[in-house]
């Protein structure tokens, strides 16, 4: 029974090392074979409300955002001579981490953002990593600092992440940022990339949030919790469903907007969805697929084929939230550079 | 119609100057004419689950907590020679503010905590206030600093509150504290007093939170939002209802635990309450009462006489959450002193 299996992997997002999150980041820079104009995105938005086409095209939106960032980076460079810079610190030689760092580098290059990279050996000391962070903290050409996770197990992740200057914390995970996100009348310097990408998709598709019932599935620091805070800032009535929730289906069924970030393949069934709901599916879960040359395929937390019959709009997996995460990282880096140089 | 009036005063808690909050703080130190032993509290707890006695006695619990604090303060003083100290800064000559400060002073004295007080004239500069904060920040005999709100309008409240060292922020309103409260795997240095008092009442009455549906009414920085974060930390499934919620009654009716902090007299009717729910009523609202010598009486957000027929336990107003707030302030001051002196 689906409900008895519920949330077996609910804590995937608690750790930045989870496969789900790593895949997510990786997919964030999947090559956009589809080149859509902004008018096309608008058409997709209009179509999303139509029963015949409910797909929220994250690839197209991410492409549009990268184009906007490219234009802004160029405008800023021309006006001020400043080029936004993102520094990524990679410790060790995990192949997957190296891939994500390479993808971030490529994404930066594609929009004209400088990318700096520090590759430290696996047996580096915490102090050596802190020295690099300190150097980037003081380097005026660096506007964002990202420490690629996971770090080797002999390092204290919290110490290292806390060392990043809040003005350069483009991941938005610093507790001071999260606190400001939670508080009315305060504004965070940066909003975490994946939840920001979820809300941006709603905005770009003109899906109204104010006064809507929203249910966030999963309460990770990286996605679920900040997504709930963002929805609340936009005046949704928010409920968070998690591994200890006794009647998740019942609550999810009340939602006008569902954001699922739990990392459990095809967990949310069609019968859990209120007709006309909008679904943002953050999960990217590998399932066996003998027909694929890789032997697996990727699916979301939401049973897509069922959801598309009931919802008014759904993000596909891949190609939904995935491509938005890196677009938001680039945007945060640009925001940081603009802020420090008072460039509007 | 009740629902059409809903949340007229919903933002009272957004400002620390609200009458509701001020009254609340004032009542936090109402003289406890009732002196109950801890066994009495346990009896009340048992009775609360009985249909004949559903009252959550905040006065008795607060008294018990103050007794515990008195014992701890004494134990600490004997073992280390250190006396916990709370500094309160009062700017201007508002009568109500002067009363709350006096009450806090009295409460400190009653448990053996040192209280320091700075009274600055209304026309002080922001810099003068900041100088006092800086002095208390550096004073090792001060373990908690509280700036009495509201400040005169020519001062920037956020600047002043941000100047309090986070290690002495016994109000728990610093965004870094709120961020840590929101994040899994992080712990705030201090939990804001009123929401902490709400949860403490549930604990002392052995009301289980884990897996329960909880609805928080109101999303203020001072009560609603941190109360929701606290409930979530204890594994409740939390929804926040606010002024933009289109169907509050429907959502509230699903709650096993209701925390109301909205400042609207008798708003939550009996028909909004699920039979057997537990209600923590933070609202303290004055309503006309010709029979009272003061011309008014105080009531909660919840229509008490109706609620008591449906709920399994309800906090009265006054005498529910009110007395808990200052008890929690004293507790936070003790926690701070213990932490800085590594006293367990």
TrEMBL record, chains A, B:
<dbReference type="InterPro" id="IPR020631">
    <property type="entry name" value="THF_DH/CycHdrlase_NAD-bd_dom"/>
</dbReference>
<dbReference type="GO" id="GO:0004488">
    <property type="term" value="F:methylenetetrahydrofolate dehydrogenase (NADP+) activity"/>
</dbReference>
<dbReference type="InterPro" id="IPR020867">
    <property type="entry name" value="THF_DH/CycHdrlase_CS"/>
</dbReference>
<dbReference type="Pfam" id="PF02882">
    <property type="entry name" value="THF_DHG_CYH_C"/>
</dbReference>
<comment type="subunit">
    <text>Homodimer.</text>
</comment>
<dbReference type="InterPro" id="IPR020630">
    <property type="entry name" value="THF_DH/CycHdrlase_cat_dom"/>
</dbReference>
<keyword id="KW-0601">Photorespiration</keyword>
<dbReference type="InterPro" id="IPR000672">
    <property type="entry name" value="THF_DH/CycHdrlase"/>
</dbReference>
<dbReference type="GO" id="GO:0035999">
    <property type="term" value="P:tetrahydrofolate interconversion"/>
</dbReference>
<dbReference type="GO" id="GO:0005829">
    <property type="term" value="C:cytosol"/>
</dbReference>
<dbReference type="InterPro" id="IPR046346">
    <property type="entry name" value="Aminoacid_DH-like_N_sf"/>
</dbReference>
<comment type="similarity">
    <text>Belongs to the tetrahydrofolate dehydrogenase/cyclohydrolase family.</text>
</comment>
<dbReference type="InterPro" id="IPR036291">
    <property type="entry name" value="NAD(P)-bd_dom_sf"/>
</dbReference>
<dbReference type="GO" id="GO:0009853">
    <property type="term" value="P:photorespiration"/>
</dbReference>
<feature type="domain" description="Tetrahydrofolate dehydrogenase/cyclohydrolase NAD(P)-binding">
    <location>
        <begin position="192"/>
        <end position="339"/>
    </location>
</feature>
<protein>
    <submittedName>
        <fullName>Uncharacterized protein</fullName>
    </submittedName>
</protein>
<dbReference type="GO" id="GO:0004477">
    <property type="term" value="F:methenyltetrahydrofolate cyclohydrolase activity"/>
</dbReference>
<comment type="pathway">
    <text>One-carbon metabolism; tetrahydrofolate interconversion.</text>
</comment>
<keyword id="KW-0560">Oxidoreductase</keyword>
<feature type="domain" description="Tetrahydrofolate dehydrogenase/cyclohydrolase catalytic">
    <location>
        <begin position="56"/>
        <end position="171"/>
    </location>
</feature>
<comment type="function">
    <text>Catalyzes the oxidation of 5,10-methylenetetrahydrofolate to 5,10-methenyltetrahydrofolate and then the hydrolysis of 5,10-methenyltetrahydrofolate to 10-formyltetrahydrofolate.</text>
</comment>
<keyword id="KW-0521">NADP</keyword>
<keyword id="KW-0378">Hydrolase</keyword>
<keyword id="KW-0554">One-carbon metabolism</keyword>
<dbReference type="Pfam" id="PF00763">
    <property type="entry name" value="THF_DHG_CYH"/>
</dbReference>
<keyword id="KW-0511">Multifunctional enzyme</keyword>
